[in-house]
């Protein structure tokens, strides 16, 4: 059946947008880049017989460390029929270039590698919404991790946001990757539950992030 | 006691005053002593001596005038001025741009009530853990004038709402008499503001779990604690949507964050408000603050059909959202609860609307998920300011429509 137009301001479209943003954060985010949804411009939904529901989205994002620049992208989110155990299929196309984070990434990498003791932190942001500047890269890396979790665990009837980084611990490795074990609090807006998720992130400036739950 | 100012014309008159000064039984207190005749002499005279001193001056032809008719009055007024100033000092020391504990908030409510004659702090009930439920009543007179209801913090983790409510209370109080709109509002209507609708939950977010949402009531037969107070109102109570999407409406599981409770109004925090509003009988608007998502919603949540007053509420909602946006560009989406977010039963504005309070709105304040519940304190005042513009737009409409 043909795709029908959805009001972008209403939650059914917003739920699909949250999945697309999560996926994009996982793919393109890092300690030097956090992508935030500015506006959902347009949303359409198509019911595909025997397959599922497919959402077509036009989004406007911003890089929180490069706020003046607008990032436009299109996304397709396919929720498979009747399945709650299968992650939605997502495709995202970013128009134009994202600001390079090579320098910031290398700086972060060197800083962490040179720490004597393994880094440990908790409650990011704290109760009052504060994030100490030196923890911001770990906060943004948590967006990468939560992006993955949100993409993998969303259904058409859930809308997840990262509520807080409860705990993060660096684990020193013999290879070149940095490893961070996170406990993330995810807020699911339909049930209103705030649930802890344990996630491990491996990260390297050239290899990007790999996430495991 | 009176204070006289005496103008001497020559050395002889100065000598007369110096003689007067030496008469200790008169208990005269010279604020400026007689010295040279060119300078005035100020003297405080105890009541008992006033007549005789005046008689003496007149008999000597010495000019005088009354500087202070009654010193006690002056002292009393000064004491009052100092007290008021001290209160203003304390007020300007309450940081509206920071998050506060329950005790600090209650102290500020006391301060507002003492600073403004038309502001009164009343208690409408007690929470489960026996904390008082304090409401600020703004009233310039009359008897049970048509009234506006505004509450915040029914979900305790939504900290920007309690914080904004404090700013708004202070704004309304200080604007009366200077802002035409607020003045005409309070000259005609009363306003009742409950800044911390769920004090037990609020304390818990400070002491134990920042993400706590519900009340803290014990639930029979469960290890879990608390009921979602915004699923506990008597409006489609406990209904789950018949169709699959989306969500549970309200959960029947005690451990859930949207648990509706064993029965409607089981939560004393909800029942106290219901009783207060019913007993008052003359509320025209019911406004409630939540966070986050930037939404401005009207009924219904428990069913997906439009309310009878849909057209007016939609139009007013859009106007209010426009007012909010005018300040910092913050966009709020407008619509019924069911269309905008999801079907959810037992909500407060559904109850108020079905009980005859037409202008029932629920606002979800900043942000849209970047910080969520943990909104940085620097955003409190901007949030409060823009929110107030939206509420004001609604309230002005209600005022104009109310006979």
Report on the structure:
Chain B: This is CBPA2 Carboxypeptidase. The complex is a heterodimer of chains A (213) and B (403). Chain A has 213 residues and is α+β, with helices and mostly antiparallel strands. Chain A folds into 2 domains: 4-95, Roll (Nuclear Transport Factor 2, Chain: A); 101-212, Nuclear Transport Factor 2, Chain: A. Chain A has 3 helices and 10 strands; from the N terminus they run βαββββαβαββββ. Chain A has helices spanning 11-28, 102-113, 136-153, and strands spanning 4-6, 35-48, 52-63, 66-80, 89-95, 120-124, 160-171, 178-188, 194-204, 208-212. A 5-stranded antiparallel sheet of chain A has the order 1-2-3-4-5. Chain A has a 5-stranded antiparallel sheet with strand order 6-7-8-9-10. In chain A, strand 7 (160-171) and strand 8 form a beta hairpin. Chain A is globular, with a radius of gyration of 18 Å. By secondary structure, chain B is of the alpha/beta class. Chain B has 2 domains: 2-69, Metallocarboxypeptidase-like (Alpha-Beta Plaits, 2-Layer Sandwich); 96-208 and 263-402, Aminopeptidase (3-Layer(aba) Sandwich). Chain B is built from 12 helices and 12 strands. Chain B has helices at 11-22, 47-59, 71-92, 102-115, 159-175, 180-188, 199-207, 268-280, 310-328, 337-340, 348-354, 380-401, and strands at residues 2-7, 29-30, 41-45, 63-68, 119-126, 132-138, 147-152, 190-194, 283-291, 295-298, 333-336, 359-365. In chain B, the strands form 2 sheets. Chain B has an 8-stranded mixed sheet, sandwiched between helices. In chain B, helix 9 links the parallel strand 10 (295-298) and strand 11 (333-336). Chain B starts with a strand and ends with a helix. The interface between A and B is medium-sized, with 30 and 38 residues.
């Amino acid at each position: 059946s043909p795709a029908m137009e959805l009001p972008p301001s209403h939650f059914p479209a917003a739920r699909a947008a949250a999945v697309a943003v999560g996926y994009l954060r996982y793919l393109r985010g890092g300690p030097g880049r956090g992508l935030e949804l500015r506006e959902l411009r347009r949303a359409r939904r198509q019911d595909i017989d025997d397959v599922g529901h497919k959402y077509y989205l036009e989004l406007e994002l911003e890089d929180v460390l490069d706020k003046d620049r607008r990032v436009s992208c299109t996304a397709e989110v396919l929720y498979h029929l009747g399945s709650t155990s299968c992650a939605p299929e997502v495709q995202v196309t970013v128009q134009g270039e994202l600001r390079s984070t090579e320098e910031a990434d290398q700086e972060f990498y060197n800083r962490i590698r040179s720490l004597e003791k393994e880094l440990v932190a908790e409650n990011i942001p704290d109760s009052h919404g504060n994030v100490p500047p030196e923890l911001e890269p770990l906060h943004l890396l948590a967006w990468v991790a939560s992006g993955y979790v949100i993409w993998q665990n969303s259904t058409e009837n859930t809308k997840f946001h990262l509520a807080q980084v409860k705990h993060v611990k660096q684990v020193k490795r013999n290879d070149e990757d940095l490893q961070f074990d996170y406990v993330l609090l995810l807020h699911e807006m339909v049930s209103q539950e705030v649930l802890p998720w344990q996630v491990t992130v491996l990260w390297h400036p050239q290899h990007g992030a790999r996430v495991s739950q | 006691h009176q204070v006289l100012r005496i103008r001497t014309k020559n050395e002889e008159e100065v000598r007369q005053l110096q003689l007067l000064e030496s008469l200790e039984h008169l208990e005269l207190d010279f604020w400026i002593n007689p010295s040279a005749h060119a300078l005035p002499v100020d003297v405080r005279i105890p009541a008992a001596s006033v007549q005789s001193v005046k008689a003496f001056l007149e008999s000597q032809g010495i000019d005088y005038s009354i500087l202070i008719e009654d010193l006690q009055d002056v002292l009393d007024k000064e004491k009052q001025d100092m007290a008021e100033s001290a209160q203003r000092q304390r007020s300007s020391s309450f940081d509206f741009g920071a998050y506060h504990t329950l005790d600090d908030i209650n102290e500020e409510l006391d301060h507002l009530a003492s600073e403004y004659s038309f502001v009164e702090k009343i208690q409408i009930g007690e929470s489960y853990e026996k904390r008082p439920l304090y409401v600020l009543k703004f009233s310039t007179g009359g008897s049970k004038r048509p009234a506006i209801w505004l509450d915040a913090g029914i979900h305790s983790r939504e900290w920007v709402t309690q914080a904004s409510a404090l700013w708004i209370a202070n704004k309304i109080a200080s604007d009366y008499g200077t802002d035409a709109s607020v003045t005409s509002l309070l000259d005609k209507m009363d306003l009742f503001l409950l800044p911390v609708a769920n004090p037990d939950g609020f304390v818990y977010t400070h002491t134990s779990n920042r993400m706590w949402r519900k009340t803290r009531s014990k639930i029979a037969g469960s290890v879990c604690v608390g009921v979602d107070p915004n699923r506990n109102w008597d409006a489609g109570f406990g209904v789950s949507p018949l169709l699959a999407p989306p969500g549970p409406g309200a959960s029947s599981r005690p451990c859930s964050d949207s648990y509706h409770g064993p029965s409607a109004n089981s939560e004393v925090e909800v029942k106290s408000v219901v009783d207060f509003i019913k007993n008052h009988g003359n509320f025209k608007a019911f406004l409630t603050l939540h966070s986050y998502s930037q939404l401005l919603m009207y009924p219904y949540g428990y069913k997906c059909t439009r309310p009878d007053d849909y057209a007016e509420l939609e139009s007013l909602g859009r106007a209010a959202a426009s007012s909010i946006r005018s300040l910092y560009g913050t966009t709020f989406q407008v619509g019924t609860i069911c269309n905008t977010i999801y079907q959810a039963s037992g909500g407060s504005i559904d109850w108020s609307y079905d009980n005859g309070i037409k202008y029932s709105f629920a606002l979800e304040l900043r942000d849209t998920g970047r910080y969520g519940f943990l909104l940085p304190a620097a955003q409190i005042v901007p949030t409060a300011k823009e929110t107030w513009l939206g509420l004001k737009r609604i309230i002005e409409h209600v005022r104009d429509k109310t006979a």
